[in-house]
Design brief:
This protein is an alpha/beta fold. It has 10 helices and 19 strands. The strands form 3 sheets. The chain has a 7-stranded mixed beta sheet with strand order 7-8-9-10-11-18-19, with helices on one face. Strands 1-2-3-4-5-6 form a 6-stranded mixed beta sheet. A 6-stranded parallel beta sheet has the order 14-13-15-12-16-17. A hairpin with a 2-residue loop joins β9 and β10. The protein is globular and about 70 Å long. The structure holds zinc ion (2 copies). GO terms for molecular function: ligase activity; RNA endonuclease activity. Keywords: Ligase.
Amino acid sequence: MTLASPSARWRHSELLLPTPAGLYCPPADIHIDPVRPVARALITHGHSDHARAGHGAVLATRETLAIMALRYGEGFAATQQVAEPGEIIRIGEVAFRFAPAGHVLGSAQIVVESRGLRIVASGDYKRERDPTCACFEVVPCDIFISEATFGLPVFRHPPADGEIAKLLESVRLFPERTHIVGAYSLGKAQRVMALIREAGYERPIYIHGAVEKLTEFYQAEGIPLGEIRKVADFDRKALGGEIVICPPSATQDLWARRFPDPVTAFASGWMRIRARARQKGVELPLVISDHAGWDDLLATIRDVQAGEIWVTHGEAEALVHWCGTAGLRAKPLHLVGYGDEGEADPKEEVADAAI
Ligand SMILES: [Zn+2]
Ligand SMILES: [Zn+2]
């Protein structure tokens, strides 16, 4: 069999390769999560570093397309196509399938298959149970593409329900103070609300204006979040003892000072690093991550049984090194433009991990 033959197995880089615009599949002429405007794009999920406006044709899950329309307006792309759950979409001689990634509502891994070679571009993912989205599907493959936001052994995320218990215990101990929880507006905010409900908390939960649209979307999608109230409809001084969910930046704004003696919490994988919490003035750090921590990155690499691992961004070196010790081929792709939303953060905070 030679490469000239139409049925010859692809060399990896012929099926998928990193380019400045993002991962590119030449035989289908399509990019995955492109960071620049392109003719055709597959989008893994709605976070703004992956889902950008201005592409020609966009193919994504129904939820991701709806989230993009909410954020950018209906005209965010020239054309849109829904990838149905389990559907195999053929473009040229490449078959694509969207498999759940467990990251946020609608999030998907993209399975790229042609001539017997299967590559899985996982986007952002986590393995921990999340009541707001479908759980990660293990798709065995030849090459697994992973991010490594929390790709260092220090990042071991505890179970999220224990972190929520800490929040509710604080609410019980300080019934006169407002608990302000910083959480990213797509996914984390709604997951925190759903977990609070699972823990049996029945009072209304108050939300910042920046969280409203996506929270309403999650509710419309049938995710039970209980009674949600808009902070804007109330006098903040009267919200002592209540839980308020807002974007992380708002916890440090003047906006937050108007609540009675606020307790500032932040739900993020970065809260594993105490210095980071201190630096951000977070009184109640909640280690709740929508990205796989170190143990789950390794477990996933084992589960998918790929012989080769590509690492897109984050702590690529540590993960690539571990793959080498495990006898796997691995390489960093050094993709730029990812990590602006969700849990991403600059290098210096990882350096704090040693403290
Ligand atoms: Zn994300
Ligand atoms: Zn991301």
